[in-house]
Hints:
12 strands; six-stranded parallel sheet; elongated; Rossmann fold; six-stranded mixed sheet; 3 domains; 16% strand; 434 Repressor (Amino-terminal Domain)
Amino acid sequence: MVGIVEVAQRAGVSIATVSRALNGKSHVSPRARERVLKAARELGYVASSSAYTLATGRSKNIGVVMPFASTWFFSTVLEGIANTLVNRGYDLTLYNLSGGLGHRKRVFEDLVLRKRVDGVLTVALKVSEDELKRLTDLNKPIVGIGGPIPGARSISIDDEGAGRLATQHLISLGHTKIGMISGSHANEMDFHQPYLRKTGYHEALLDTNLDFVPQWMAEADYTVAGGYQAAKQMLGDPRNAPTAIFCASDEMGYGAIQAARDLGLRVPQDISVIGLDGHPLGTFYGLSTIDQKPLEQGEYGANWIMDILELGDAKKPENTRELISWPTELTVRSSTARQSKT
Length: 342
């Protein structure tokens, strides 16, 4: 069986360089890395995961914990995480918490404790003090995506600021009758994104002395169908309808656009619509949006936890509070325009 010594001899480098190159370490020159990888391919070398685990105490496996993986946002973050881990030679174990509180308890009290993973990435999940202590006691670093976690590293957009920016964009176009389709209370998760985005909408109205009209506020489930139904009701009475709508997700924005068209309204001449997410179909629908780049969030989080494992104290990767404020970007397309004077 071909081993690391044979690969080093074929590539003309040290055993240490082979180890670093095959394990995705950054401090290897591109030329040396290519020679190592070429030699490994030619010799048919396959790394022994058990040998690596025995030598280092690591499994090169990262646990990813999220409420569910079925929606676009979560699947996109997961894609970014998975691609980055694979490129750096790590495996991924997904823990889906759709089974409820009992399932969550088993994940943190049982599965992680079995030392299957070197670290944990959470998505839209605020770990408790007890859960964080368990990970810290086991020397397991954690990085959260989707909101601030006391005592841990995390990545978060400013949901309140994003809601404010979307509404301010509509105000800047001269709209004074602005509605919002928010996430529903049933969609409230650990970081309360629906509430925060709604707060940003309210603040933007107050800042410019615009009235909040309850009939122009609706809730939906972040889906196209939910946005469609909410917008159909909001726009159905032409005597009391807004001229612009902020949708708290792009998919609800697509539904709002379709509802407006089914009611005979032109987008953006009669009604402007803006979403929030950065969904790839936004270009097709011409939807203006606040882009939060979820794929890149996943990539950043994955690189961050691997850097902690590889560049920090190998025996005790410390959990410490550090928050990355993830930037959002206003992307203006054809679904928003200045309010028509007619």
